[in-house]
Amino acid sequence: MEKPVVIVGAGLSGLHAASLLTAQGIKCIVLEARDRIGGRVLSTSVAGRPELGTFDLGPTWFWPQYESTITNLVNELNIRTFEQYTEGAMLVERSEKDEPERYVLPKNSNAKSIRMIGGVQSLINAVANTIPSEIVEPETRVTAIRLDEANAITVEADLADGNRKNIAASAVILALPPRIIARHIEFSPSLPPNLVTNLVNKPTWMAGQAKAVAIYERPFWRDSGLSGFASSWVGPLQEIHDASPETGSGALFGFFGMPAKMRQELGEEKLVKMVIDQFVRLFGPSAKNVSSILYKDWASDVETAVEEDFHPLKDFPVYGKPPQEGIWDKKIIFAGTETNSQFGGHLEGALLSAEQAVLEITNG
């Protein structure tokens, strides 16, 4: 029997690669360290209150006017979508002493962003449904990839029960953050030094970030002519958006402006209180009446972040395909959003990188 293509990582990129290979009759398996699929896609609901909706703690939007691959896939998989709510004024918070300033942005000043009903997890689940469920192996952490003198590839992985397994592969698609590959997977023979340097110098998208979502019974800020969009120099949240589902409950989400180490020192309980206080300053006393607050610090997620990711990004990272040469060329193929030069950091980049990886497999 032909050896399978082993895909490491069951995020959007890894699952899309598996879907494309399966459609072409190419045997593959997907190994995932987490106990769930989706990677940095994480959509969740409030425990005991599913009627409030599903909220994204990872990526949230896509932009159909620029991103044709995800737009076509969403249509093909019949995923229901809605436009991000942007009607009304935005708020700017320059200091804690002064009232937030209101600004009405010119019409069409921002590109139209689209969200998915049920969160981005609905896309993950739909892609996963295009492949046989048995080829995805969760709680299987790849620790080493070896190439012997006969050019045979072996992937070594630790299982949740403490056992290990070895898998013979025809090729390996690494659909993981580049820094995770460099820091957590042993290669024998070693990867070329210039390749390791390239991987380590690619910051993991979102890895230094944390996100909070405050959920309310209804989007009360819209009554005051506010869009839910806010920018703050005070914090703790630096950038805030309306995260409400298409109908029903209301929600606001924001990205933290403080470094990962400071968040970890303060702790989740203190941060949540600070978030509510900020929303009260911005949106008024009704913001105290939260149904729930969801919080995710990606810097504390060992499957996402390494220590280098704790430092806040000063500029948008330079992403793109790592250099491949020498003995590992065409044996390991890199995928994941950081390996796409045009849409690095976006869901579109994850999909395009998977398509490029599969093209390399099929072109031999």
Radius of gyration: 22 Å
Largest sheet: 7 strands, mixed
The tally of strands reads: 20
What proportion of the residues is helical, as a percent range? 10-25%
| Helix-strand string | EHEEEHEEEEHEEEEEHEHEEEEHHEEH
Alpha-carbon distance between the termini?
A: 18 Å
Strand content: 25-35%
The number of distinct helices, counting runs of at least 4 residues, comes to 8
Shape: elongated
Overall structural class, as computed from helix and strand content, comes to alpha/beta
Mean pLDDT: 95
- State the strand order across the main sheet: 7-6-16-17-18-15-19
Low-confidence stretches: none
Structure described in brief:
23% of the residues lie in helices and 25% in strands.
Structure description:
With 364 residues, the protein is an alpha/beta fold. 23% of the residues lie in helices and 25% in strands. It is built from 8 helices and 20 strands. The chain has a 7-stranded mixed β-sheet with strand order 7-6-16-17-18-15-19, with helices on one face. The model has no long low-confidence stretch (mean pLDDT 95).
